[in-house]
Amino acid sequence: MKQMVEELHQLAKQISRPLKLMEVCGTHTVEIFRHGIRSIIPGSITLLSGPGCPVCVTAIRDVDAAISIAKRPGTVLVTFGDMMRVPGGRQSLLEARSEGADVRVMYSPLDALTLARNLPERQVVFFATGFETTSPLIAGTVFAAARGGVKNFTIFSSHKTVPLALKTLLDSPDVKVDGFILPGHVSTMIGLAPYAFIAEQYRKPSAVTGFEAQEIILGITMIVRQIAAGNARIENAYPSVVMTEGNPRAMAILNDVFEPSDAYWRGIGVLPGTGLKLRNKYREFDAEERFHPEVTGVPEPELCSCGDILRGVKVPTECPLFGTGCTPDSPVGPCMVSTEGSCSAYFKYGHR
């Protein structure tokens, strides 16, 4: 670790210009703070948060649709815990539950499928959020529901996929990054190949990293070495977990159940091909097709900078609401809600 940090400082002197690296994953943002990474790397290296918090990029419309479904008589809505406090247009799922909606927190979609089997008289809907880390498990759950003939189970898919979102960032003239710290969890599923365009088309060096301090420092060092040498490739600083080919079996299940679709990323907008919808042969498990939730368009909260923060254009402390109008106890935007949210991490660990 000491040798890598010393090398980083030598490389920074050699490059002699400021560098901006984006940690795509929200968990990396938290761990960078927890490990005090910013205090030991060269001051010329700025670490920016990216769009890798699935809770943060879940659209207001999707939260409102989930609430609408949850309020239907005879319906149970199941979701991950982080989604409970995400503000929708008028309320959160937690607030909807306080008004009588049957909203339950579970750690696995398989638990929701078991619930559906145990409550055949109820409609059980899983609010499916997340990136490629969780979507294969949800795909497997849908497959199990189809194989088992479970008719009262559906999912509301708000899934997003990471690589094409990074392409959108790179195509944005106001997003200035020199390299990417790529997500470890997502990469265990998709491998390295889907990121190849970052190096080949945009000449941006990148590294997949784990979440321990030495793994993060190794990833940063790999990227800065490439910049110093004028190279651009995708490196793996997490080989104990991430294989070059990813997890082909998980991706096969995912691709059997889901197909790409356009998706609205909260604070960013519609990104073509970055969502996942159920294929026609599994469409009977689509909650949107079954319930047709009615929602109205609600704009993003005024003055909230989540969109710019998720794109790396701003840091949380540059938002006019940060720490005053928006806090973890009273969040305005989703970046302050999730444990992986950059605003939440800055509030908990950063200097205010």
Give the tags.
single chain, 352 residues, alpha/beta, four-stranded parallel β-sheet, 37% helix
| Beta-strand content bin | 15-25%
Provide the structure class.
alpha/beta
Unreliable residue stretches:
none
CATH topology: Rossmann fold
Q: What is the approximate shape?
A: globular
Note the topology.
Blueprint: H1 2-15, E1 19-25, H2 26-34, E2 45-52, H3 60-70, E3 75-79, H4 93-98, E4 103-105, H5 109-118, E5 123-130, H6 135-148, E6 153-159, H7 163-171, E7 179-182, H8 184-190, H9 196-200, E8 206-208, H10 213-229, E9 234-236, H11 248-257, E10 258-265, E11 269-278, H12 287-291, H13 306-310, H14 342-349
Parallel strand pairs: 1-2, 1-7, 3-4, 3-5, 5-6, 7-8, 8-9
Antiparallel strand pairs: 10-11
Give a summary of the structure in a few sentences.
This protein has a single domain, classed as 3-Layer(aba) Sandwich (Rossmann fold).
